[in-house]
Structures are given as C-alpha cells and as structure tokens.
C-alpha cells in the first residue's frame, strides 16, 4: 500500500516508516519544501501527484519556520484539510492525537467515551483537530498516543527524558501515584500500521486509544524496570507528588504492553 506519512522523520514517523517498509509497502514522506502545510493549493497539488492509498498524519510544528500561529496551522488547519481531501478521494486517513487532550485534572482511566477537556496549548489544539477531522471525514481514524519509550536518547521519548534528568539532577524522581499512558515505540508503530490497514479495509473508524500500559504500572515501577533493562542507567527516587491515572483503555487496538516488555 502506498502510504504518505507527514512527520516521517520524527520519533513515531520514522518508526512507522520502518515498520511499513518491512512489510514491503511503499512509503512516501511528506515534502514540506514542495507542499508547505500553510499552502492549501500546494498541498492539494502534491496529494494529486502522489496519489496515496493511505495518509498517516503525524506531523507537529516541532521546529518553527516563521509562519504565524504555526502550531495551530499544523495541528488543526492542516489536519482538517487532509481529512477532507482523503474523504473526497476515498483514501484511508489516520490522524495521530495525544493523551494530552485530557488535562491532569481529568479523571482516568480514559475510554473512547471520555470527553477531552483540554482547551489550551498543544492538548487543546489536538482536541480541536480531533473534532474537525471527524466532522470532515467520518471514516477517519483518530489515534491517541501516549508517551513513547524508545531504545536510546536523542529523540522525543522517555529514555531521552530519563537520560536528561540524570545529567541534570543525578537522579530520576518518579511518582508511584502516576499511571502514565505509554508504550514502546515499535509497538506504537505496529498498532498504527494495523489501524491504517483496518481503515483502508473499512473495518475501523473514529477514535482509537494506543496505550501499552492498560495494566496501570506506575511511572516509578516503569523507570526502575527501564533502568534494569539498560544496565542500571537510571537512579530512581520514589515520590507521590503527581497523582494521575492517565491510562487509555481500548481493547480493540492490538498494542504490545510495557508490563510484558519489562517483566512487570
């Protein structure tokens, strides 16, 4: 399947591209130099030229280019236009959102019936984008992701965060009362590939929760297990400072579980 990925060089995008290529699929990374997100005409022309069979929209405004309100342009406006194009073209569309559509005050664990409460910042933009995507394309899939666990530092993932915490403080302070939404990056990629396939076959649409911590392991336990996995790389200090059940429960979506990965 010819799949066009926005954000293909990002943390999740590069993992998804690798997973799809391993299947023998054709993967095309969106070229922002040819089709900037703020230029609707260029984007439409690019889509007509590429003629993808599926679009997976992962891109965020990670590095500014000087476009006014760039975060909103990428997260909201571009997402809506891509959803509308795919609806008209009969192209499978997967839009990646985030658990951050729920604020720290929201009561988890969350299900597909849980209403996002974020109204500001990145989470607020993603919540608005979800609504616009599904209004423009009822067959679209909105995949909410949690915190990604990579294998090494250097990108936006949990290992990078833990490594930076060690450099700064010499210890990782981890709450025993926080149950994060999280999954290993490779498992997220496989889940997104599955959602793309299901969307393309007309078997799945609407909101999907991609979370590898359905069992509810605490951040403290996860960090301890990751430290053991990486040869004692992280000194861990337990606390109860952050109390939050951030899990996203959706048994329909096959995603590897961190507990099984880490022997928890």
What's the CATH C level of the largest domain?
A: Alpha Beta
CATH fold node name of the largest domain: Rossmann fold
At CATH level 2, the architecture of the largest domain is 3-Layer(aba) Sandwich
Domain unit count: 2
Distance between the termini: 37 Å
Total count of helical runs of at least 4 residues:
8
Number of β-strand runs: 12
The SSE order reads EHEHEHEHEEHEEEHEHEEH
Helix content estimate: 25-40%
Instruction: Write the CATH homologous superfamily of the largest domain.
Output: NAD(P)-binding Rossmann-like Domain
Strand content is 15-25%
* Overall average residue pLDDT: 94
* Rg, nearest Å: 18 Å
Largest sheet: 6 strands, parallel
Summed up, what is this model?
Helices cover about 40% and strands about 20% of the residues. It has about 260 residues and is α/β, with parallel strands linked by helices. The model has no long low-confidence stretch (mean pLDDT about 95).
